Amino acid sequence: MTQSAVAERVVSLTLYKASRDGGSRATLEGVFPNEEDLKNYWDKLHNADEGGNPMVWRTFQWFLYTSRDEVNWPSECTAKAEKRGGSTSHFCEGLPTGAKRENVPVSQFHKSLVC
């Protein structure tokens, strides 16, 4: 299956944020129909000229998920850290079946997102 065929099947991109306290509630930040809408939101969130905070990506842990099914995304989930070897992965626990962590669309802040 080509990459574009897979992209056409994506129903939503869902962004959560949580405080950096190592195990907290993650709140739903937004559900976006495509990568362009997510990138526009992410850029606006960091744009000081539009009331955003350029350092917001350092203040919170960010979680990005895709779903290829129609799901009712919870307004909160449990943010968990899982250590494997020398690295730590962060994820939202208890998300619907079909939810998958994905890389963030390319932007100047993409490396800051924890996926």
Structure summarized in a few sentences:
The protein is an alpha+beta fold and 115 residues long. Helix content is 20%, strand content 37%.
- Total helices: the number is 3
Helical/strand content category? alpha+beta
User: What is the first-to-last residue Cα distance?
Assistant: 24 Å
Order of helices and strands: HEEHHEEEE
Helix content: 10-25%
Radius of gyration: 14 Å
Poorly predicted residue ranges: 104-115
Largest sheet: 6 strands, antiparallel
Please give the number of β-strands: 6
When the domains are counted, the total is 1
Walk across the major sheet and give the strand order. 5-4-2-1-3-6
Shape label: globular
Q: Report the portion of residues in β strands.
A: 35-45%
Average pLDDT rating: 74
